[in-house]
Design goal:
The complex is a heterodimer of chains A (about 750) and B (about 350). With about 750 residues, chain A is mainly α. Helices cover about 65% and strands about 0% of the residues of chain A. Chain B starts with 8 loop residues before the first strand and ends with a strand. Classes of the chains: A mainly alpha (about 750), B alpha+beta (about 350). The structure holds adenosine-5'-diphosphate and magnesium ion (MG).
Chain lengths: ~750, ~350
């Protein structure tokens, strides 16, 4: 056995024999009441609990460790390999069997519990000891595989694959499977297909009342209509903007770039909020229109128009980022070739430029579509009577009815839509992207746009840019006036409510927003590096290692991108509210949710970065006796800095702005900024909400700056390489292009 | 650190398959310790794959690989005492020349100072003293290549591998660097496997050459052996030029064969062939042009004659087909259509098996 295998084994014994097996609530290091009865009792170790007969079903797991320990006394590597694989596989199977079989009273799988000697018993959620134990069993199994020669016998590679697969299984597939399961059982917990079908085909989901009668249409159609409109409009805006910037001498390119970054560091519903302040019944512009032109005040902004407007403003920059990449990718020499063959400008555009653009356009459309489907904040703030799936799911869970089964069914419909879009994208576009960037210096001037196209594009984006500008103005001043639309007296009141600091008794953060603010920063700061780490390791495995099931792993990571946050939120509360993994209400679940929501982007930016690093560099390192971990650390990571920045920035920003997933997961103890703001909006405290949002935007801008400083530039020789991620927005585009 | 010294390499029935593509097909050979052996062949014949299997960068699908008599077939690259100089050099762009060269000992945990010393020694050996602080992007192609060699040498590997090390250099430099590599190999007594598609380069540097064609070994031998005794048409044609002519062996006695070549009968070493169809490979410089009156020769007429400085390229039409002839030294140009008679030099005419 090699040293690291011994270490894994030691970890296992530590987790099994010493640490508290179950999750402890309220662990404190000043009073040790929770330790009462150790090593037995609530904080007992698995070994003690199993041997004392309190939890005999934990005994077989211990036997697996004992079996693996026998490997210490064997010289023959193949024998050790067999032993480790057996112990690891059997141990993991037993571990999960007892975890899922024995849970709270009356839950779990009674027949399996009886088999494991725990009939009628109950146990709480797993804790630190169990975590170490399963990690150790997994590592032992993977090391066994490596000893057998898998992945060229590299311990790090097999272990990394094992860990990633386990994590994805536990935190993506298990929760989604739980949704499916809870959609199939009725209120009493019995399996009932009929309950599912009646819920699924309910007219509140699929009804066509808005066409046939004068009632509302089903929520599925509402969502679909909104998403299609949002996809079309954002794509057109993005395209117009990309063409104008790259293909005309239009001034203001820098301003455009800045304007595209802003919405990305803006929590999504803030746009909706600003729209209310502008166009609501007592909104700024509504007032102006009423007083000057006698346009009656109305509630038009609440409903489809408002939500659509907010989503377009929020997501068009993403379409722009995708499309600017595509337009840049069209090699000018192709267009020049067309011109030298006698084509006029318009003909060239129609026959060469447009066909090359088409896949990118489809991509941007699908992206707008999926983002709109997944959006939760704007429909919540602006939806009015216009219900969409994400808000309906939310109210099914937190509303009076508290109907988890219905939430699960709605989540399945939503998941169906986004996975459908994802499937179309993979199927239809998968190999149809005509990237013409060769990496070789490609001289030649891009053909200017035909005049009528420029005019059209300009006409389209001008109102957009103007509106974006006004909205940020509102966000900026909204926090500093008493009440937008009613009373414009300058005041710091909102900031004081949220962020006042009391110095009288030392440093005391007594503002209302501080708690959620600190939690947000903490969670974002913890989850961002984890996301980057897991994402980049996965990318490394996917691009640089060959192993069975690589394609499946890649598909799984990308699939998780297509799961809307709302679905993840519901899935997590359904899956992690009960043992064996009982972590709802903790800060941990927030971190986990963010890590697995954002991981696909980490993977994408990692893959993009790695594909620019010649594989022979890794191989050179390997032939110089470096193991794959050393290679990763010394050669790949330093060259991957831009991708690291991308992944960090993206996950940091997303963790600060996400609403949809975490609104289900926050608790009184662990509240997040966005959830707090949404609460303020619902309570009508717009001033505080706006003020808090501005603070978030500033903090994110600072955070991005810090990350870029901290990771530093990639240094290749004396000359500075132009960083791959030109702007903070880049990772979004990269994620988007997935 | 005790130096392991050069080691032998042996392939036993090794194959490498990528899905349906067979990149290396049932190949066996041995490289003696301290020798420079070249893998030579056209692009795509499996040379790089073979080299990568020695390095451990690819794990063979079948067969056995031995280094210093030890079975390393399933051992990863990091566990083999083998270094490689990559075609692209694969210098780490974010490390200086010194850091690149010291990489091996550093990751081996030999300590900073020791690693530095070892790296400096090898950099001096390849003539790069004073360049330690530069980054790869600040070096010329030839200098980069030396850094790659120094880096590969630092751990004093049992086997050193070169994958087309000269392909990124200009023609003049290529000659010099290949001499340097050869000298280095002989001075340090290294086992070297060297991949190239350039037959001249292979002839110039190798102790032995393994000619590969379509994932298999076409022939293996010393440079001279390959040139003078090609085993088949592929080798005859790939190493140097050859006129390949279908002939018939009429009689074999005492290891010599009588071969009917147009109107002539020539006696050549039979090389194990028996009566029946065969082919002969004639080196262009082994055909001598004489006056048409010479009745013992093969009659023909000049079709083309080109002046190439130190030699003439001549095409002669004969009864057995068009033959390519090279005449060295300053000779008169031969007018098109003039009748000549061709005779054979003592060497450079070889019997090879029929297709
Ligand atoms: N990773 C790979 N996947 C599939 N085919 C490969 C791979 N590497 C090499 N090949 C194929 O194997 C054959 C031999 O390749 P290689 O050893 O690189 O040839 P060369 O002699 O030019 O170095 C080629 O046909 C090549 O296409
Ligand atoms: Mg090659």
């Amino acid at each position: 056995m090699r040293g690291s295998t011994k270490l894994a084994l030691l970890l296992g014994w530590l987790g099994y024999g010493l640490l508290p097996w179950y999750l402890l609530e309220r662990v404190s290091f000043s009073s040790f009441g929770w330790l009462a009865g150790y090593p037995f009792g609530r904080a007992g170790s698995a070994l003690a609990l199993a041997l004392s007969g309190q939890a005999p079903w934990l005994l077989p797991v211990g036997l697996a460790f004992a079996l693996a320990t026998l490997g210490l006394f064997r010289r023959d590597e193949t024998a050790v390999a067999r032993l480790l694989m057996l112990a690891g596989a059997a141990g993991m199977a037993l571990f999960f069997a007892q975890g899922f079989a024995i849970g709270l009273k009356g839950q779990g799988m009674p027949w399996l519990a009886a088999l494991l000697g725990g009939a009628g018993a109950s146990q709480p959620g797993m804790g630190a000891g169990a975590f170490l134990a399963i990690l150790s069993l997994l590592l032992l199994f993977c090391h066994g595989l490596a000893y057998r020669g898998y992945c060229k016998g590299d311990l790090f590679t097999t272990s990394a694959i094992g860990v990633i697969v386990l994590l994805i299984g536990l935190f993506i597939f298990f929760p989604v499977a739980t949704i499916l399961e809870s959609a199939l059982i009725d209120q009493n917990g019995a399996f009932a297909l009929s309950a599912f079908t009646s819920r699924f085909f309910d007219s509140s989901i699929w009804g066509l009342g808005c066409i046939t009668a004068n009632t509302n249409c089903g929520v599925a159609w509402n969502t679909l209509l909104l998403a299609v409109l949002c996809g079309v409009i954002t794509t057109l805006l993005g395209l117009a903007c990309a063409l104008l910037i790259l293909r005309t001498g239009m001034p203001g390119k820098r301003v455009m770039r800045a304007l595209t970054v802003l919405p990305i560091i803006t929590p999504p519903f803030v746009i909706g909020l600003a729209l209310i302040l502008l166009f609501g019944r007592s909104g700024l512009l509504s007032n102006v229109l009423y007083e000057w032109f006698d346009v009656p005040r109305s509630r038009w902004i609440y409903g489809l128009p408002g939500v659509l407007l907010a989503q377009v403003l929020a997501f068009a920059p993403i379409a722009f980022l995708v499309l600017i990449g595509v337009v840049q990718g069209i090699s000018p020499s192709l267009e020049e070739a067309s011109q030298t063959l006698g084509a006029k400008r318009w003909q060239t555009f129609r026959t060469v430029t447009w066909p090359l653009l088409r896949p990118g356009i489809a991509n941007a459309f699908l992206l707008g579509f999926v983002e709109s489907m997944a959006d939760f904040g704007n429909p919540l703030v602006l939806g009015g009577n216009y219900e969409v799936l994400s808000t309906k799911i939310f109210f099914a869970v937190v509303g009076a009815s508290h109907n988890q089964g219905q939430a699960a069914v709605l989540a399945i419909v939503l998941l169906g839509f986004t996975l459908g879009a994802f499937w179309v994208q993979q199927r239809w576009l998968g190999d149809k992207s005509y990237t013409t960037v060769t990496g070789k210096g490609d001289s030649g001037l891009p053909t200017p746009l035909p005049r009528r196209v420029s005019w059209l594009a300009g006409l389209v984006i001008l109102p957009w840019v103007a509106l974006t500008f006004v909205i940020y103005l509102v966000i900026l001043i909204g926090g500093f006036v008493k009440s937008m639309g009613r009373d414009y007296t300058p005041t710091l009141e909102h900031y004081r409510t949220g962020f006042s600091i009391d110095w009288s008794r030392g440093l005391f953060f007594d503002g209302a927003a501080w708690d959620s603010f600190f939690t947000t920063i903490k969670v974002a700061a913890i989850s961002a590096p984890l996301t980057a780490l897991i994402g980049l390791i996965t990318a490394y495995l996917l691009t640089r290692q060959r192993f069975a099931g690589r394609g499946a792993l890649e598909f799984a990571t990308m699939l998780s991108f297509a799961i809307p946050g709302t679905v993840i939120g519901v899935a997590y509360i359904l899956a992690f509210n009960v043992p064996p993994i009982e972590i709802t209400g903790t800060g941990l679940i927030l971190v986990i949710a963010f890590v697995f929501r954002n991981m696909p982007v980490g993977v994408r930016s990692g893959i993009a970065g790695l594909s620019q690093i010649d594989k022979s560099l890794d191989e050179a390192s390997t032939t110089l006796r470096a193991r794959s971990f050393t290679t990763l650390w010394r050669v790949v990571l330093p060259l991957l800095k831009p991708a690291i920045v991308s992944a960090l920035v993206y996950s940091f920003v997303r963790s600060m702005t996400a609403v949809s997933a975490v609104i289900f997961l926050v608790s009184a103890e662990y509240n997040l900024a966005t959830a707090y703001i949404v609460g303020r909006v619902e309570a009508g405290e717009f001033g505080l909400a706006i003020a808090y949002s501005s603070v978030l935007i500033v903090v994110m801008a600072l955070g991005i700056g810090l990350i870029q400083l901290g990771v530093g530039e990639r240094k290749l020789g004396r000359r500075k390489l132009i960083a791959l991620s030109g702007s903070a927005a880049q990772p979004i585009a990269q994620g988007a292009a997935s | 650190m005790t130096k392991a010294g050069p080691a032998s390499v042996e392939f036993r029935n090794v194959s490498m398959r990528y899905g349906s593509v067979t990149a290396v097909d049932n190949v066996s050979f041995a490289i003696e310790a301290g020798r420079l052996v070249t893998l030579l062949g056209p692009s795509g014949c499996g040379k790089t794959t073979t080299l990568r299997m020695i390095a451990g960068l690819e794990i063979a699908s079948e067969g056995q690989i031995l280094i210093a008599g030890r079975d390393v077939t399933r051992l990863s690259a990091a566990d083999r005492d083998v270094s490689m100089v990559f075609q692209s050099y694969a210098l780490f762009p974010h490390m200086s020349v010194l850091e690149n060269a010291a990489y091996g000992p550093t990751v081996k945990g030999l300590g900073k100072e020791a690693a530095r010393e070892m790296a400096m020694a090898k950099l001096a050996l390849v003539g790069l003293k004073g360049f330690e602080k530069r980054y790869p992007s600040e070096l010329s192609g030839g200098q980069q290549q030396r850094v790659a060699v120094a880096r590969a040498l630092v751990l004093e590997p049992q086997v050193l591998l070169f994958d087309e090390p000269l392909s990124n250099l200009d023609a003049k430099l290529r000659r010099r660097v290949r001499e340097e590599i050869r000298e280095l190999q002989q001075d340090l007594n290294l086992t070297v496997a060297y991949v190239t598609h350039d037959q001249e380069e292979a002839l110039a540097v190798s102790d032995r050459i393994i000619v590969m064609s379509n994932a298999r070994i076409a022939q293996e031998g010393a440079p001279r052996e390959l040139y003078e005794q090609p085993a088949n048409a592929f080798v005859a044609d790939f190493i140097g030029d050859a006129n390949l002519i279908d002939v018939a062996i009429t009689r074999v006695t005492d290891g010599r064969a009588d071969v009917a070549l147009g109107p002539l009968t020539v006696s050549l070493p039979a090389r194990g062939l028996s009566v029946g169809p065969a082919r002969i490979a004639i080196r262009p410089e082994s055909l001598l042009i004489g006056p048409a009156a010479d009745a013992a020769g093969l009659p023909g007429t000049i079709r083309k004659c080109a002046y190439l400085g130190n030699h003439l390229d001549i095409m002669v039409t004969t009864a057995v087909g068009e033959l390519f002839v090279i005449q060295y030294g300053s000779r008169e140009m031969l007018p098109e259509g003039s009748p000549v008679s061709l005779s054979f030099a003592g060497s450079g005419v070889t019997l090879i098996p029929p297709v």
